[in-house]
Amino acid sequence: VGSAASKIETAGLSDRQRIQLAYWTAFREVVAERKGPVKPAKPQAQTWLMFSGGRGDVRLVATANFQRNRITCQVTTFGQYSKPIFHKLFEQRGAIEAEMGEKLDWRERPDMKESHIVLDLE
């Protein structure tokens, strides 16, 4: 049954979409094995995968661009509390970046409803 469902799910997909779906499916399995606080959505044949993290106004999104060999992970704040949440995180950026061992790209986007915190790996 699982094999038949998988064939139906991938019918009509391009080679690129099949690769995307396979990548996000494997990615989701690794995340699930770690039993962490974030839960990825059902994998789709697309360049991104969204995670739930317990707050409705914060999203965690991973993207994979196989043509450019680029992976990003992005925290997006949006809605009524977007800017206060972003500012609170920005106040702690030193500690956050030290814990991650990576420099992040902090994009407040003052004229927009959402802000982004991006880790870009090439």
Account of the protein in words:
- The structure is a single chain.
- By secondary structure, the protein is an alpha+beta fold.
- It contains four helices and six strands; from the N terminus they run ααββββααββ.
- The chain has a six-stranded antiparallel β-sheet.
- 7% of the residues are buried.
- The mean pLDDT is 87.
List key phrases describing it.
4 helices; 122 residues; six-stranded antiparallel β-sheet; globular; 27% strand; alpha+beta
Mean pLDDT: 87
Backbone CA Rg: 16 Å
Report the uncertain regions: none
Number of helices: 4
What separation lies between the terminal Cα atoms? 38 Å
Protein structure class: alpha+beta
Range of strand content: 25-35%
Annotation, overall tally of beta strands: 6
Oligomer: single chain
Sketch the topology as an H/E string, one letter per element: HHEEEEHHEE
Overall outline: globular
| Share of helix, binned | 25-40%
List strands and helices in order, with pairings.
Blueprint: H1 2-10, H2 15-34, E1 39-40, E2 48-52, E3 58-65, E4 70-77, H3 82-91, H4 93-100, E5 105-107, E6 115-121
Antiparallel strand pairs: 1-2, 2-3, 3-4, 4-6, 5-6
Short account of what is shown:
With 122 residues, this protein is an alpha+beta fold. 39% of the residues lie in helices and 27% in strands.
